[in-house]
Design brief:
- This protein is α/β, with parallel strands linked by helices.
- The chain has a domain of about 140 residues: Leucine-rich repeat, LRR (right-handed beta-alpha superhelix), CATH 3.80.10.
- Helices cover about 25% and strands about 25% of the residues.
- It is built from 10 helices and 20 strands.
- Strand 16, helix 7 and strand 17 form a beta-alpha-beta unit.
- The radius of gyration is 28 Å and the shape is globular.
Length: about 425
Amino acid sequence: MMKSSMKLGNRVESRRNKHRLDKISNLPDELLVIILSFLPTWYGVRTSILSRRWRYLFTLTDCLYFDDEPFKHRGPIMRIEMVDSRRFENFVYKVLELHKISPIRKFSLVCRAIYSYVHLNAWVKHAIQKEVQEIHYHYDIYEGELPYDLITCKTLVKLSVIGYKHHGIKIPKSSWLPNLKILHLNSVRFGDDYRSTKSDYHSTERLLSSCEFLEELTLDNCVLSTKGHVTISLGQLKVLKIKQCSVENGFFEIEAPKLAYLTYYSTVGVKIVPLWKYSCSLVKTELHLYSSADDRDILRDVAYKTTELHFVADYIREGLYHRCLFSKPPQNESLLPFSCNAKVIEVNDFCGYDGSSLLLLGHLLRNARVLKKLIVRKCHGFDDMEKARQLSKDLLMLPRASSDCSMLVLNYNGVTSS
């Protein structure tokens, strides 16, 4: 009798412990749905086998993340990993059929295999019909064209597109995104090419001009195309990032009177309308400059308007200092006096071997009257102790216009340099 009562007591205690450990089951359905909305949809669907309660919870999330990565398998030829595209297609269609919530807050589609545009367009269109606010579209396989419905969506607030690194996704020639505030384009090639007729150029201008309320724009490894000199006005733009882009057949000028944050890699054919024309003040600027007349203008302009200035000195080549700061301006162009109003200047990958970086930094310091802090981070290969000490001495000896300026010299890993 005593043994049976002890067994019963152990079972009761075990259930209590299990109940204490399974705290997630005590949460209300609303909170569980929020948790599921942070998971890739594949994992959300797998929770449906836990119990009856979990069976359809994934259909109530307002975020859908489709990625064909979990559908990879070893192929018959050389056992190379391949995506079971048919299985992934069936999975997406089944989830969309069961999904009940509208509007959708976020829709993400990441594809590593080749899919028919019939399927891609149908999946995107489903999200658009449910008044989606944010779309992440990553088609990492070969050159194609974005779904037309995607770039004419009236409810989109954020759009992120990533294409194939060698070819890029093409953007159709017409677009309209009246409520878009954030646009990120990576490895995108606009629809114009050398076969286009004269009237087909300017798809870049048409896309950006259709985003009337755009506040953040990132162009990374994109191929822009136009013919002639085109000015794109983005009246609400606050954040602009241009990285590793190229321009075919023309020249772009971006007008952004409210710009506050700028990241700029030298791009021939893209120019920022001089910021000194506007009352805006840049909060933070990151520059990766080569030797060009456009770089000279951007450097002068940014130093005059920014509060926090970041350089990647590895991009500074011999001659940039002279060409940026001392070269004669083109005919009929006035030379704007150089003035640096930055309070913080940070220089990364600083070597100083050829003297260009040191000269440029010295000129900035002589003109930075309100500078509070200078941070110099040495490049990774700067391991010669004698040269490193000499560089630190050279930096400390640079004359500074600001009497309140403190200097910090760091190694590439962030450790204070000796």
